[in-house]
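Friendly challenge for the regulars: who can give me the structure tokens for this chain first? No prize, just bragging rights.
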Amino acid sequence: MKFEDVYKQVEGIVKRCYKDYYLHLWEYADWRQEGMLVLYELLKSHPNLLEDHPRLYRYFKTKFRNRIHD
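First reply, four minutes later:
Bragging rights claimed.
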């Protein structure tokens, strides 16, 4: 599965965080880039998540929100 296809599956989480949180000087493109970085790191450390979509969503949501809060 291509990286772009996997990202499209979790992009809703990025959109939701974009609406819920405000980061000064961040545009939506910055949110997308950060989401792609988080997804890349997550898949690199846990490649088995590609077969388990519910777990991928949970892990990505947690990791992405923690990254935004930091």
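The chain has a mean pLDDT of 95. The chain has one domain: 3-69. Your move, everyone else.
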